[in-house]
Design brief:
Helix content: under 10%
Radius of gyration: 23 Å
Oligomer: single chain
Strand content: over 45%
Largest sheet: 14 strands, antiparallel, barrel
Number of helices: 3
Number of domains: 1
Distance between the termini: 24 Å
Number of strands: 20
CATH architecture: Beta Barrel
């Protein structure tokens, strides 16, 4: 057991070191960056549905009430590779990046409860945007960093096939943003820098219920509520004068203003997630809808003047099918096939245009020779934003992989 725990600690350190430096989207310029969903790969492979699901040996991250169903110790790690093409209407650029998605460990407590803890990237910042203000002036925007979160959740079983759960999260990270202004025939260029450290706590409450429709079908439902929370942002900002040379990689500092300290807040309102589905021994089909009021920035150092934050929402439809989970002779019949699609309103307008995200997802759960352990493979394709009105359109392809291992760590000793 000591070796297992040591391996998990090493992976925790790895995901923390990687998560803050991997993003390639121009839309990560806004706020605290692109927000990552708190969902497992198997959930994302079904369009993101997962609030009504639970398992004896799988970790579902959407709803902490699902942790009550765990009967075996389960540890899982996942990674994601994103391929992206950005089109501004005049030209296209492509890029790719890899990052670890999450690391989690769950185990049962008695027969009626379970605990899951882990670490996951919360948001990613990574962009480099050139704005031609005029024929003689340009602004180069670039930034990096992001936030991570450590979470601890507890689920408990109640009568009438009902689970409840509570999850606490600590968010932390650092975001660096810079704006470089250059003008032709001007000796000096100016560089404006902000460096923000972000921390905060949040709570998520969940409930699940399973009701019989008939002998073969169950009706599963789930509700999760992310309570209102504040992220504290503190850091420094400064103005740097540079020698205006044609080579952007050559930086010759002429003067630097004294660092100015700032403090600000990001208020995230209550977020609600509703999920419902029909479960059969071989298949599951579900629908999920989430919504949230606009995020509020106070004494803002992270928001641009041309952005307006509005309500966020997402609708997902998806499911899975397993031909014959108990088959001993046909491996392909034991594979679980997953698919879904989603539509998101990302919660902000740029130049009075609302930014939306549409996509489809597919995946496989491959059982391993080791009983109850598995490999999840999945991908989704989609688009975000649009061309025109000073915007860009992203066409993306995500490939996901997760490894899940099960064990029984706490065995009662028997004496002969």
């Amino acid at each position: 057991m000591i070796k297992k725990i040591a391996c998990i600690i090493v992976l925790f350190v790895t995901i923390n070191s990687i998560a803050q430096k991997n993003n390639i989207s121009p839309y990560s310029f806004f706020g605290i960056g692109e927000i990552n969903e708190a969902k497992s790969v198997s959930e994302l492979n079904m369009g993101g549905i997962g609030g009504a699901q639970n398992s004896l040996y799988k970790i579902h991250l959407t709803n902490p009430a699902s942790y009550a169903s765990l009967r075996l110790t389960t540890y899982t790690v996942a990674g994601n590779n994103k391929y992206l093409t950005v089109n501004d209407g005049a030209e296209k650029q492509s890029a790719s990046r890899f990052n670890l998605s999450y690391l989690a460990l769950g185990f049962p407590i008695g027969d009626k409860a379970g605990v899951v803890f882990g670490i996951q990237p919360n948001s990613n910042v990574g962009y480099s945007i050139l704005d031609n203000v005029s024929d003689t002036e340009t602004n180069l925007f670039f930034g990096e960093g992001g936030t991570n979160k450590v979470f601890l959740g507890y689920g408990h079983k109640l009568p009438y096939k009902t689970n409840i759960g509570l999850e606490g999260t600590f968010t932390f990270g650092n975001i660096e943003k810079r704006i470089l202004n250059r003008r032709e025939d001007v000796i000096l260029a100016s560089l404006y820098e902000t460096n923000s450290d972000i921390t905060g706590f949040s709570l998520k409450f969940g409930i699940q219920n399973t009701a019989k429709i008939n002998d073969k079908l169950d009706l599963k439902s789930g509700i999760t509520v992310n309570l209102e929370n504040n992220l504290k942002s503190s850091g420094t900002k400064r103005l740097v004068s540079l020698l205006n040379v044609s080579d952007p990689n050559l930086v010759i500092v002429q003067a630097t203003s004294q660092d100015e300290v700032f403090n600000s807040e990001v208020n995230s309102p209550l977020k609600t997630n509703l999920s419902i589905g029909i479960a059969h021994k071989k298949w599951y089909a579900g629908l999920e809808y989430s919504f949230q009021d606009p995020v509020i920035f106070k004494n803002n150092q992270l928001q641009s003047a041309n952005i307006e934050f509005i309500k966020t929402s997402k609708i997902s439809v998806g499911g899975f099918y397993t031909p014959k989970a108990e088959s001993l002779t046909n491996y392909w019949q034991r594979i679980t096939y997953r698919a879904g699609f989603y539509s998101k309103e990302l919660g902000y307008k740029i130049n009075d245009t609302e930014i939306k995200d549409f996509g489809m997802s597919f995946g496989l759960t491959l059982p391993s020779k080791r009983k109850l352990s598995d490999i999840n493979l999945g991908f989704d394709i989609g688009k975000k934003g649009e061309t025109g009105n000073g915007l860009v359109k992203e066409n993306y392809f995500n490939f996901r992989l997760s490894l899940s291992f099960t064990d029984k760590w706490f065995r009662k000793r028997k004496l002969n």
